[in-house]
Every structure is written in structure tokens, then in C-alpha cells.
Amino acid sequence: MTKINLIENKVLVPKEFNNVASKYDFATYLSQGYQEDLDNSAKWLGLEGDEKVLDLCCGTGKSSSACLPYIKTGTITGIDNSEGMLKVANEKFAEEIKAGKMSFELQDAMALDFPEESFDAIFMAYGLRNMPDYDKCLNQLYKLLKPGGKICIHDYSLANKSWAKYYWGILSYGFIVPFCTILSGSSKIYTYLAKSVLTFLTPKEVEEKMISAQFKSIQIKAHKSWRGPILHAFLAKK
Ligand SMILES: C[S@@+](CC[C@H](N)C(=O)[O-])C[C@H]1O[C@@H](n2cnc3c(N)ncnc32)[C@H](O)[C@@H]1O
To answer: What is the pTM of this model?
Structure first.
């Protein structure tokens, strides 16, 4: 059987998430500060309560739940291309879905089926790194935002310094890959995680791509957790 290289076939990444979906919330619960980092990025997004929010690559809805406290009359649309991850999200947020406050849809983030200017805000947590074409994705997100709309890209992005790579190398290959493999019974997505962070853009490169996609008022924020040196929130407006 030929081994599939997920870095070169990112379109297959959501299907790999199906294999770990039932253990995803537990694994991230044990990853100290995972939800708090998402909560901080959602706070930095500066939602006012009546927005139509797109949570792109929402997975099991941890990023959606970070936005939830800020949404009063607005709505959150979670998009992911993994049926398994969405099944968990749909179960967890059954009440909010019934109330019309949240909805989850299976779609490819690279080919979203929404009219231009559909959303007031976009949250994309641990998603951009998984896209086969970062520029195409950012251009699409710019079009989907209403004028004045806000975006927060939350992702692992290593500053181009050897110590950040060293730090991530030890964390990922020393802890995350072995531990999550034992927990979920599947190593593929976690080995991909380790490699995808090493091959992703630096914070400066993400900023340059956001400028090219016409985003304005770009701010890069670091988190206070142990992920601080490797995790950034990229905030911007249309
Ligand atoms: C690490 S999880 C992040 C989930 C969630 N945002 C969170 O913060 O916990 C990445 C998610 O991106 C999804 N994903 C990857 N590529 C995608 C694509 N092309 N279209 C839609 N979803 C995608 C995966 O299925 C997975 O659920």
C-alpha cells in the first residue's frame, strides 16, 4: 500500500480527522490552556453580539464555543470538511442549533459555498496551515467578509528563529505525537501536525499574505500560555 503524504495532499487532512474525532476533545482538554488560548483569540476578535460569524475549520466546535459568549442576537456558522468532527459538534451544541444560534456544515474551506459579503466576522483556528493554497484561501475570506468585517486567524506559526523550531520539535515529537497516538490509536494526523507547523509560514509571512489579500489594520498577538512562542493570533479588518 502506498503511503500518503498529507503535507503534499492536504485535501485528505479532514478525512484523517475522522479517525481521531471521538478523542479530539479529550486530547485537547489534556493539552493545557488549549481552550483558554482559543477564548483569548475570540475575545481579541472584538465581537459585539449581533454578528454573523463564520468559524472556519471548526472541528468539534471548540473554536465556535470560544465565540459563543459574545454572540447575543447573531449567529455562528461552523464549517469543516470532516464528517466525524462535525458529528461531535452537532451533538455538543444541539441546544444552540435548535435555538438557531449555531449551525454546522460540511464544506471544503478552499471552495466555500456562500455569496460574497456574507459574514461580519471570521474565526479560523488551526485552519489556515491545513490549506493547500494560503493565498487563495485568504482572498476568498476577504470576499466573504462584509466591508468593515473582522477576521482572526489563530494558528501555530514559528518565528524564523532556530529556537522556536527546536522548541516545537521537542514538544511535538517528544510529547504530542507519542501521547496523542496512544490516546487516539492513530499517529498519522499528529505526525502531520508536527510537520505542517515546521513547514508553515512565519508570522511575518502570514502578515504579508494578509496584506496581499487586502486586509487592513493587521495586528499579530502572542498568547501567554506555553504556546506563546509558537502560537499567534492574526487580527485584521476588511
Ligand atoms: C486542528 S482542527 C481545529 C478545530 C477547531 N478549530 C479547534 O480549534 O479546535 C483542524 C480542522 O480543520 C479541518 N480542515 C482541514 N482542512 C479542511 C478543509 N480543506 N476544509 C474544511 N475543513 C478542513 C479538519 O477537518 C479539522 O477539523
So the answer is: 0.96
